[in-house]
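Weekend entry, working from home. Most of the wet-lab plans are on hold until the incubator is repaired, so I used the time to fold the two sequences that have been sitting in the queue since the last round of cloning. Logging both here for the record. First:
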Amino acid sequence: EEGNHDLVVIYTSDDKLCWTVAVVDDGSGEHYYTEPTPAPRQNQKIRFFNMDKLGPLEVMITGDKDGQVGYALYRVMDGGLINLYGEGMEDCC
């Protein structure tokens, strides 16, 4: 959320799949991790922005795999990364 110290991480698991999680400040100084969500395999980019000018911030993740490009727009809600809109992510993860 805006003003808090949140982090979005893309990582590769032992089985060579890419995942993303958000590390979220709960407002009391404690942090929690969201459940992993599939992430693009190559050329990943993460961008924070405020689409609706209200909290919380949204996160756009883009990337590709073998020439297949995808993107998704997420918001941290109810303890997870909620996919608001996207295209092609199933082909690049």
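Second, folded right after the first finished:
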Amino acid sequence: MIKEKLLKELNNQINEELFSAYLYSSMAAYFESLNLRGLAAWMTNQAKEEQIHAQKFYNYIVERGGRVELQAISKPKSEWNSVLEVFEESLAHEIHITERINFLSKLAFEESDRASVLVLDWFINEQVEEEASVEEVINKIKMIGDSKQGLYLLDKELGTRPEPSASQSTEE
């Protein structure tokens, strides 16, 4: 059984992951409005991955005999000034999620909950990948600057990102 304080924070993390999915869906909708379908597809895949992460936390709580308590999801931002701004906000959000996962890991360690520490280790590694992925896109956006041709090629490239599957995103 998960101790009460950690259980509460794991439930909070489900909300964080679902908000992440909601935020990335909003970013995808913004890109759709600019006819940048590849960027939209990249963000849609990011949203799907966050839903998988939320489900992973959900399943873990249930497996440990805890009760999942879902919360209201806040409305995400829907307007940005540039493609770069969207990805910079995405990176800032991923950094926030990394801080949350690190907090959960520390809490699990303090409560001597080894099973939770192991699950959270997977998320720590996942966050390294998440941040690196967004940073790579930011670097490409900065490299192309105001080039419409560069944006076209980036849109095409990001549109090839494979859709995440539950088995890929939940292997430990």
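Plan for Monday: verify the second prediction. The two ends are 20 Å apart (CA to CA).
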